[in-house]
TrEMBL record:
Keyword set, alphabetical order: Signal
Any coiled-coil regions, as ranges: none
Domain named Glycine zipper 2TM: residues: 30-65
The name this protein goes by in its record: Glycine zipper 2TM domain-containing protein
Signal sequence, renumbered to the chain: 1-21
InterPro entries with a match to the protein in the record: Gly_zipper_2TM_dom
One annotated Gene Ontology cellular component of this protein: outer membrane
Length: 66
């Protein structure tokens, strides 16, 4: 089950990043930060709240990257 979840997550991330083609640099960094933060939050906290918190924090950090 963990393998299926990891593969699904990686595939979803790859597909969502391919949609970033028309975004400007700040929007793209925000989306990437949110995706990475969500995955990291899930890996650390293993709960919905941790996933959402990680995505929010990752998006915030990603939006500030120049």
């Amino acid at each position: 089950m963990k393998l299926v979840f990891k593969l699904t997550s990686i595939l979803s991330l790859a597909l969502s990043l391919s949609a970033c083609h028309s975004l400007n640099k700040t929007q793209r960094n925000t989306a990437i930060g949110a995706a990475v933060g969500g995955v990291a939050g899930h890996m650390i906290g293993k709960s919905t709240g941790a996933t959402l918190g990680g995505a929010a924090l990752g998006g915030l950090i990603g939006s500030q990257v120049k």
